[in-house]
Amino acid sequence: MNLSDVCREEIISYIHSICPFKLNNHGKMIRSEIGLLILNSIGYEIKKDDLKFLSVIELIHTSSLLHDDVIDGCEIRRNSSLNNKLAVLYGDIILININEILNEFNNSELIKLFNKTVKTMCEGEISQIKSESEIPSIEDYIKKTQMKTSSLFEFMVKGLFIIREENIIQELVSFAKNYGTAFQLKNDFVDVMTSKSDIKNGIYTASVIFSGGINITEDSIEKTKGLIDNYINEALKCLDVLEESSYKKTLTEVTKCLKG
Asked: Distance (Å, rounded) from C-alpha 95 to C-alpha 101?
């Protein structure tokens, strides 16, 4: 799955016009990839407004990473070489600039949804901070994951319909929620199996929850893989709303790539 060079460069161009500092990298831009595939899969021609909106989605994610890096005490920023003070301030400026860009769409529903999404993401982070060094229930962990990560995927899909003044296809919103959940669960699982940075920071994810402690067991690993697969399967079911096409096939393959 690759963004076309033209779409990628245009999204990056919008990002540069909104971001108050030069990014070191733009990452995989997975949210933009998913958004464009969804638009193509329902037969929509990609327009400049779509690309502008997707650049906003990427920068909401960037802003959250800047703030998360400060909260987590990371010495190295994931997207820049900013120190803590500048990271917080620039993260705030990005959100202000995003609000100005969204106002250009002249749609109050879009602004309300943006505010709700950012608030939800922040509340998810607050929930995580309050439960540091405590093993949460699997239900609380999933809820936090969906607040911090899935909500932005949902906003991305809803926003693409809103700016076109088209009826929102709820199955595709559900796809975004399930995909976003599986995406974060997989990232957390990879962290536990490699750097264990979450455990070091007192953030306990599925593998720790299932094992009941930081000594990960084979059983907890299998349960975590099963949990990820459940959300992948739910996401795949949501794609049944789409007609068969190369874009649907790619969305299916991208989702299956999250399997443990």
From this structure: 10
What is the tens place of the pLDDT at every residue in 193-218? Answer: 999 999 998 999 999 999 999 999 99
Kindly report, residue by residue over 63-91, the tens digit of the pLDDT.
Answer: 888 867 666 666 554 555 678 788 788 88
What CATH class has 5-256? Answer: mainly alpha
Distance CA 182, CA 106 (A): 33
According to the model, what pLDDT value does residue 77 have?
46
Alpha helices in the chain (DSSP H): 5-18, 30-41, 48-72, 84-103, 108-130, 138-145, 151-162, 170-193, 197-200, 206-211, 218-238, 246-256
The number of beta carbons lying within 10 Å of the beta carbon of residue 160 is: 23
DSSP string, 76-137: S-SS----HHHHHHHHHHHHHHHHHHHHTT--HHHHHHHHHHHHHHHHHHHHHHHTTTS---
Angle between helices 170-193 and 246-256 (to 10 degrees): 30
The Cα diameter of the chain in Å comes to 53
Go through 162-183 and write b for each residue having 16 or more CB atoms within 10 A of its CB, e for each that does not. bbeeeeebeebbbbbbbbbbbb
CB 101 within 8 A of CB 121: no
Domain extents in the chain: 5-256
Asked if residue 158 lies in contact with residue 175, where contact means CB atoms within 8 angstroms, the answer is no
| pTM exceeds 0.90, yes or no | yes
